[in-house]
Automatic annotation (TrEMBL):
Protein name, as recorded: LacI family transcriptional regulator
PANTHER family named in the record: LACI-RELATED TRANSCRIPTIONAL REPRESSOR (PTHR30146), LACTOSE OPERON REPRESSOR (PTHR30146:SF153)
Keyword field contains DNA-binding: yes
GO MF, one annotated term: DNA-binding transcription factor activity
Domain HTH lacI-type, chain residue ranges per copy: 2-56
Native source species: Saccharothrix syringae
Keywords carried by this UniProt record: DNA-binding, Transcription, Transcription regulation
Length: 332
């Protein structure tokens, strides 16, 4: 392994001079600096993380603020965590995962610790108490999601309103005249979480635009709750022939309950999901779905945050267009 001493010998300088060049803690002549940098390249020397941090005045760590709350689907959230971690590593940054639900105070604590260069914030509510703090912090931030008032922020998200609309349009195009949204757990709506709010709004607006009867149904993810919800839905609304499911944890139970009730998918009830592709593809039958692009969103968020750290202008809001993939659950 190449060391600072090896670089010093190759450049004909003292090891301390190499250290000063790498950290920028002392002024070094241009000629000496160029000689040291040439030796670094020639020998393939890689400064350790501490030296890089000193040189850039950065911690080389990004905080991913992901409070663990009721109604959240952890397997899907972990896809976001992995995507952010992989993207950060490509920028030679590590990720500090912050899961405590401490609201605005938690953001101030993390930003004030000098352990992180910037913050990525998830599970964004429509009227999120963390938003005013993010505008005040001396650390740059990017939200995966966006609040009702996004002024002064940098946000990236799937266009969930359009995702809900695309599901309704697909079912309406197939001739379905009555549809239902099997939504997230009630706690998610009670928090007014942005993605759930916008999906429901897009679903309802599209149903009105297409002249399709619609109903919405917050649903807990356990099998018994799904059984009661779906059975009650079909009893109260026997004309429903299309379901849009925006609740990844409930998906297997939704399909199983329909089967138990003697409702064939898609002959009797068509099902469209808003979920990661791999989950939709594993179902029987495979489900038509709008993908939740966790990897793409994670990479976009990290790229935006790195741009802000480099003081490069960034767009205030990036909405990824929804992609609907037709599978067997809506075939006619």
């Amino acid at each position: 392994m190449v060391t600072i001493a090896d670089v010093a010998r190759h450049a004909g300088v003292a090891p301390s001079t190499v250290s000063y060049v790498l950290t920028g803690r002392r002024s070094i002549s241009s000629a000496t600096k160029a000689r040291v940098e040439a030796s670094v390249r020639a020998l393939g020397y890689h400064p350790h993380a501490g030296a890089r941090s000193l040189a850039s005045n950065r911690a080389n760590v990004l905080a991913l603020v992901l409070p663990v709350r009721e109604g959240m689907n952890m397997p899907v959230l972990m896809q976001f965590v992995v995507a952010v971690a992989n993207a950060a590593r490509r920028h030679e940054h590590d990720v500090l995962l912050v899961t405590a639900d401490q609201g605005a105070a938690g953001l101030r604590r993390v930003a004030g610790s000098a352990q992180v260069d910037g913050l990525l914030v998830m599970d964004v509510e429509m009227h999120d108490e963390r938003v005013p703090v993010l505008r005040e912090l001396d650390r740059p931030s990017v939200l995966i999601g966006f609040p009702a008032d996004a002024a002064g922020l940098t946000c990236v998200d799937l266009d969930f309103a359009e995702a809900g609309a695309r599901c309704v349009d697909h079912l309406a195009d197939l001739g379905h005249a009555s549809v239902a949204l099997v939504g997230a757990p009630r706690a998610v709506y009670q928090r007014d979480t942005g993605f759930a709010h916008r999906t429901m709004a897009g679903f309802s607006a599209a149903a009105m635009r297409r002249g399709v009867a619609s109903t919405t149904l917050p649903t807990e993810p356990d099998h018994e709750s799904v059984r009661v919800a779906i059975t009650g839905l079909l009893d109260r609304h026997p004309a429903v022939t299309g379901l849009v499911v925006h609740n990844e944890a409930a998906l297997p139970s939704v399909v199983e309950v329909l089967r138990t009730l003697g409702r064939k998918v898609p002959d009797d009830v068509a099902v469209v999901a808003i979920c990661p592709d791999d989950l939709a593809e594993r179902m029987t039958p495979p489900l038509t779905s709008v993908a939740v692009p966790a990897e793409q969103l994670g990479h976009h968020a990290v790229a935006l945050l790195m741009a802000k750290l480099d003081r490069t202008p960034t767009p205030p809001l990036t909405l990824l267009p929804p992609r609907l993939t037709e599978r067997a659950s809506t075939a006619r």
